[in-house]
Amino acid sequence: MNKFISAAILFLVMAFPLAAQQKAAPDSIPAVIGIALEDNRASLSASLRPLRQIAGAPEAFYTYFWEFGDGTFSFSPQPVHHFKDTGDYEIRLYATNNYDDGKAPKSKPRKIKVKKTMYAAADNPSGFFPGQQDFLAMKANRMPKPGEEMVTVIGYRHPGGSGTVSGSLLLFYNEKQFAQKNFEMAGARAYHGERKSVFDSVLAFAPPGETYIPLAGPAAGGSFSPEGKMIAAWRAALAERNAAVAAVLAEKKGLFREQHVWRVENLGAGEEKFLFLSLETTPEMIKDTNAVVTISSLFIPDDPLMPMGQYNLEMQIVASHDPNRMQLKNRRMNYRFVRKSKELSYKVQFQNTGKGPASKVAIGVAVPGMLNGQTLEITDYSPKCVMCDSAYERQSCLDTIVRKDSIFFVFNNIYLKGVRQEGVEDQDSTKGFIKYRIRFSKELKKLPFTSQAAIVFDKNEPVITNRSKGRWMPGISPGVIMGYGIGSGKHEMPLGLPAGSMGFSVSTYSPYRPYLQAEIYLGLQQKNETLTSFSRDQRDTAIGTGKYIVQGRENFEITSRTTMDVVPLHVRYNVTSWLGVGAGAMMSVVVGEKKQEKKVVTAMPQPPTGTLEKFEQLAGTVKERFTAADGALFADVNLGMVRAGPSLGVRLLQYVKDSQQRVFFYGIWRF
Question: What is the pLDDT of residues 269-280, one digit of tens each?
Fold first, then answer.
């Protein structure tokens, strides 16, 4: 025993220093911004806490988002920025800890004062907008993580042509499909004179319906003149545009709980401007870290001849920051309305986190058995290249290989820059994605299904993404039950499911797993008549206007009873599509009882006719409620369309108080 104690003490002494050495570095150290300012040129750097590597993940690293305080920004680790004008500026840094198990470093702004403008400030296009025709776009510095701040940038630009553009810039967030709020607006930073407005004012800035294009020269007058036709066309276009804007606004208000509006004035040709929004993700944000949330923006020019801009930023909620991820859009579906032809939209995002470029990226995706890989349709991908079946030798191309339980997407002969590659400042140049649609297979079961991707950059070890899980909403299935109960107990009027019962049920719609079902029955009224006394008599009497000799007197007690049977606990399981079993407990209650005394007199008319006559009289009615109750355990079997539709069942019940057994035969239709 002493040896054992000595060994235990020795183990603790050795283990304590080891535990002290393994203590994690604190993750609450804020980012420190370093600035080397020379006139209007600022060279920026950051001092960040040491990374805390997640075991088994790729090497941890930081990504950066710099906000310069003048309406511009950068994703470079150490940007050099030239300010256009003198003045005071507040620089912010938001660093994201990828593959790190701690919190993102807090942002602590740093103020600088620019006194001279000796260096020319570049005014080149930012590359922020996806396409040349897009004049609205959004980016976030990181994916939303519960309890963490994130920055969303809304970029807008002149849609082309000459002159200036004014309009309304709208933001919609916190989707109504989720029970709780996911974001709180912590602040909005506008650097180009954008001013807050109200939602109801958006249509007010459009020209009124009677407005028409000013005509050069004298108006000819008359609705059939060229000028009159032009005015009519203008008014028709304006009415159509206003109706379209109203419809879009109504749709957005139906989807989102909250919105903000800013007025934009005099946006010049070729100008790009940005609005910065700080959003705090609430701790109550959806716990499911595979869920996809959407933030939407609109730009509505006052000029009805200019098109509206719309952009939806879809973001996946994460537990830790990982640039390689897989997401399923609209992952919670209603099984009642889904058909096998429904298409599921998947997106796999990847980022080369290495120190050098990758020339080949292979993405292997596991296909759940419920999906049919042969229905694959690629909807979008990046880097852009041709399909390999039409490419010449060594051309950049995308190859697709479909197998029974997997799909492989292979980007060949590309140049995907690495995050830590020297000279790389544009983070988008290190990223790529593949979007595709796929349909359900013939056998569609109401069961969760998961998919996952493995991403290989050149010949490196594969990076395994999160599991993207598709789920079905439970759905409510009401049911109608008609049944007939038989059996007996100690009493002449036993409790529980009388001969002739109608009930209703509520359960999960078309379940494939064990599920709960609640039931309630309102039985037909039961009536029982019991003889309480009998006597013979030969007395003369008068009944009405006639004379009789009484032969006998009988007294009866009539009991009328209405019962209710409730099944609060019923566990069921559908073994196949046509066989289901269940077990549970039922409570039977007498909800109403009426007792009456019936007196019957049997008499012979005088003079005798040879036929006895009976005279009845009811008296002493007593009504009571909830006079008796009993509980029962049961087991039953269903045959038929047990998931949704009609089926037949038989249930055996064993009551507790009355020690009676009853058999209940019934039919049920679950809708």
Answer: 888 999 999 999
